[in-house]
Design goal:
By secondary structure, the chain is mostly helical.
Length: 428
């Protein structure tokens, strides 16, 4: 029987508020894609150096996730969320300072702090979205919340590309800015984008403050004594973490390189701002559409089966983006977004169902695995510098094959209760 406090109007209000958080970190994280193109031009960076932005950002997941799980157990959901948002506002202000002194390393530090706040948000919000309601609909709820995350991504890439990459500075194949005046203008564009983010976050803090009691009342009970390392003893938690590592690494690698990939004369040869719009509309837009479709399909199709099919298609399209040239390669790369759509929420909820560890600990481990967004894009960037951007798509292709293996294993193994989460076995 579902706990009444997680099945009434309070739970619905909490779920709506949590969904706003999903939208927020999607919009913020997606700004990394146009930011990479902007900083690469401002500081005359190689692909490997430019992708240090993703390394700094996603490194935070590896460093902060387990401590965030411990903080969540002690402070509760609303206070953890408010502290995370405050840290993110401070990080946005640090971006302004990095532009003033024109120091790339300071920008990387700001991104690390911004991601640290997002990490704590994810540790708190992902299990909430899965657990606020009937256990048998956990896949649906988390995928629906992730649909709004995708909406935030599309919104963020559009706004970020317009603010950071528009104008004469980035027209054509502009990979380096040599004019000091143009460089100052490019820095100012980056500053505007992160100032808008800071204002947005302050508004979100106000929303959380006014709904904090409903969130805490509807949240599953925490255990301040539960070890954040408990999930390391669960083989399913570890397997799920590996799958999250591969998925996020693949998705981020493709998104990070897409603008420059489409900009190449041998692919589409379009301006960076136009490539940014295509990234938003087709890659991230495909993920948005796919998550809404996936929310429907997950009420009818077994989650492991749907996950396996999506991962297999993503692997095929990634390989074709490597093997083909011109528009065919471009649209294969963009098409991966549609099949990425249900992967994160499905892997997350499948793992929560099968892990015997407390939900906060499992969530912390899964969020720590998002560090894949630091490592695989860096590897892809290194390959791009040596063999070209097309060759970099081998990295996500291999990663998606690993997710197929996780889905196949999950299809053979029934779920069980999650400790401290009152989650019943899934009918899938």
């Amino acid at each position: 029987m579902v706990d009444q406090r997680r099945s009434g109007s309070g739970a619905r209000t909490a779920f709506i508020t949590v969904t706003c958080l999903f939208f927020a970190w999607g919009a913020i994280t997606s700004n990394n894609d146009p930011l990479i193109a902007a900083l690469r031009a401002i500081y005359s960076l190689s692909y490997t150096e430019a992708l240090l932005t993703q390394f700094a950002f996603f490194l935070a997941y590896g460093v902060v996730s387990l401590p965030a799980a411990a903080v969540l157990g002690r402070l509760g959901h609303s206070r953890t969320i408010l502290a995370s948002l405050a840290l993110m506002v401070a990080a946005c202000l640090l971006v302004q300072l990095s532009s003033a002194v024109q120091t790339y390393s300071l920008a990387l530090l700001a991104l690390f702090l911004l991601a640290s706040g997002i990490t704590a948000l994810q540790v708190a919000a992902n299990p909430l979205a899965a657990l606020l309601g009937a256990p048998e609909r956990s896949h649906f709820r988390l995928t629906l919340a992730q649909s709004f995350n995708s909406l935030g991504v599309v919104f963020g890439v559009h706004v970020g590309s317009r603010v950071m990459l528009s104008g004469d500075i980035f027209e054509g194949d502009q990979s380096v800015i040599t004019d000091p005046v143009a460089r100052i203008a490019a820095h100012a564009a980056v500053d505007r984008a992160f100032l808008l983010i800071a204002i947005f976050l302050v508004g979100l803090m106000a929303l959380i403050w006014f709904t904090r009691r409903r969130i805490d009342d509807a949240a599953p009970p925490g255990d301040p004594l539960a070890s954040p390392l408990a999930a390391l003893k669960s083989r399913w938690a570890m397997f799920g973490a590996l799958s999250i590592f591969l998925y996020v690494g693949a998705e981020v690698a493709i998104g990070s390189l897409m603008i420059n990939f489409l900009n190449q004369p041998g692919v589409l040869g379009i301006p960076l701002a136009t490539a940014g719009a295509m990234l938003a509309n087709f890659y991230w837009g495909g993920a948005l559409v796919g998550r809404f479709i996936g929310s429907f399909l997950l009420t009818r199709v077994a989650a492991p089966r749907l996950l396996g099919g999506a991962a297999a298609m993503a692997a095929l399209l990634s390989f074709l983006a490597f093997a083909l040239e011109g528009p065919a390669a471009a649209y294969c790369a963009l098409g991966v977004g549609l099949f990425n759509s249900i992967m994160f929420p499905t892997i997350f909820s499948i793992t929560l169902e099968r892990s015997g560890a407390p939900s906060a600990s499992t969530s912390g481990l899964l969020c720590m695995a998002i560090v894949g967004g630091a490592i695989l894009p860096y590897l892809a960037g290194s390959i791009a510098d040596v063999a070209g951007l097309g060759a970099a798509f081998i990295v996500p292709a291999v990663a998606y094959v690993g997710i197929v293996a996780f889905a196949a294993a999950a299809a053979r193994r029934r779920s069980h209760h999650v400790k401290g989460a009152a989650m019943a076995p899934s009918p899938h």
